[in-house]
Amino acid sequence: MTPVQLLALSLGLSVAVAAVGLATLGVLERRVPDPVIRERAWGALFHFSALPPAFVAALLLLPPQVQSVGAATVQFEAPAAVVSGSGWNHSFLPALEVHGATFVIVVAAVLFGLRGIVLLDRLLRLRRLLAMTTPADAALRRLTDEIARRMDLAVPVVRVSGCGSEAFLVGLRTPTLVLPAALAAAPDSPESRAICAHELAHLKRGDHRALWLEEAVLSVLAVNPLLGLIRTHRAAAREEACDIVALAGSDADLRRQYARSLLAALQNPAFGRDIPALTFTSARRTFAMRRLKAILAPVSPSSQRSGLVLTGVGVLIAGVAGAGSLAVAAQREPVMVAVVAPATPAAVSASGPSVSVLPATPVGDASAPEVAARPAVAPERPVAPVQTSAPVPEVMTNPTWAQPPIPRLPDGPLPEGITEALVRLSCTVELDGQLTGCSIVSETPAGAGFGEAAIEAALSARVSPSMNVPPPPRMKVVFALRFRLPA
Q1: What residues contact residue 151 under an 8 Å CB cut-off, 6+ apart?
Q2: Pairing with 437, which of 13, 73, 222, 423 sits 20 to 30 Å away (CA)?
Q3: pLDDT in tens, 362-403
Q4: Where along the chain do its domains lie?
Q5: CA–CA separation, 475 vs 467, rounded Å?
Q6: 417 sits in which H/E element
Q7: Long-range pairs, 156-160, Cβ under 8 A, ≥24
Q8: CA-to-CA distance for 98 and 409, rounded, in angstroms?
Q9: How far is residue 316's CA from residue 306's CA, in Å, rounded to a whole number?
Q10: What CATH code is assigned to 339-363+372-484?
Q11: Residue 118 carries which DSSP code?
Q12: Which of 182, 157, 168 is nearest to 125 (CA)?
């Protein structure tokens, strides 16, 4: 497969992994009350869904596999131009795969650009919001210092916002805690302590770094519509996990005040749209009722059995994503290599025309013995059609080889300074996959014998039968053989 096809296939695999995991964890989530375990499960699914495209993209950055066992290598190239015929045939399928993969990549690129524009707008909105905040007073800083020391954290920057009634944590290298003015006015109240502890719990867990990683993955894989839903589930579980830390040891009155603060933040949002920050209400309100229920009626931690079940599901999803990624990566076509060596009787194929292969004379070796001249394989010239209404054979692109052409260097000394040669051939594909009527379309450099060597190799090659079409007319195939000479 081409790199475009591999990337398109990896994106499809990413959607499939996300769909299977979303359906599985959606059922198990209701049976696992512990939000910490649920958050880890959703986070693992989020990253496992991004594994296939990341793995294939990293593979494409590496050079392709080359089976270098001789002095000359040959690689196949698609023709520069293809003449398409009319009618349905098997060659339509490879073309459909190529164009379909290109369409998927184009759509993914467009969605990536749109997602980047939206993210830039959210960043600018966050920057304007931070510009309207003011530094916290001494009492609020003392409260933050006390909670941070108790949680064994470095004290973040604390600021006060007059917009809305929602606290949030923002920043990657320098975390900043922004508290609403209503809470900053009463820093010693239990409600202020609980909300401040909630945001610092995010900092303790490293959620401020995970947030930016999620934003990057969602931008690159914007073509996968399920990643946003998976992230929503993870964000809801993450907020519940921080509520447990903030309300540890709290009585029923504090829990009711905490729930009222959450409802007030939901009713009076400070931001018309979500911003890239860890807000007190989280990015979505879909799971607000479940969170309120957990605040007012805390649940006991999940049993070890529930944790083991989710761990097993995670391992299974990771195995599916990893195996699928390896299977997609295995479809990458290696560069084919031809062996330049004296021919042996076993090396001549039993099928197809018999071609005598003689040892190549090393370049620049004046003492090498002369080699008997071999019969030149003259290219067959196409016969001009008699009738103007004769059907035009379709040209095959990207053939699948049952037995690839393996040329050898031309006999005799080669011109000095040649390090590479390229021959483009046009052949007719018979019903059994054999190539006949080969002619040279182009030869660079010309007159050095590379064209005859390429035709000789084509006569012993065979195209996969799955690529054939019935007559009339016979299908044409145009391909290129590149010779790379040793230095």
Answers
A1: 197, 200, 201, 204
A2: 73
A3: 333 433 333 333 444 444 555 444 444 445 557 776 777 888
A4: 339-363+372-484
A5: 10
A6: none
A7: 156/200, 156/203, 159/130, 159/133, 159/134, 159/135, 160/133, 160/134, 160/135, 160/136, 160/184
A8: 33
A9: 15
A10: 3.30.2420.10
A11: H
A12: 168
Q: Are 74 and 39 in contact (CB under 8 A)?
A: no
Q: Which two three-digit tokens encode residue 195?
A: 């909300």
- Phi-psi domain of 449 (left: phi exceeds 0; alpha: psi -120 through 50; beta: other): left
pTM of structure: 0.63
Amino acid at residue number 482: R
Amino acid at 152: D
DSSP symbols for 138-190? HHHHHHHHHHHHHTT-PPPEEEEE-SSS--EEE-SSS-EEEEEHHHHT-TTSH
Q: How far is the CA of 216 from the CAs of 180, 211, 221, 222, 312, in angstroms?
A: 28, 9, 9, 10, 28
- Secondary structure of 447-470 as H, E, C letters: CCCHHHHHHHHHHCCEECHHHCCC
Phi then psi for residue 83, to 5 deg, are: -95, 115
pLDDT at 342: 39
CB 211 within 8 A of CB 163: no
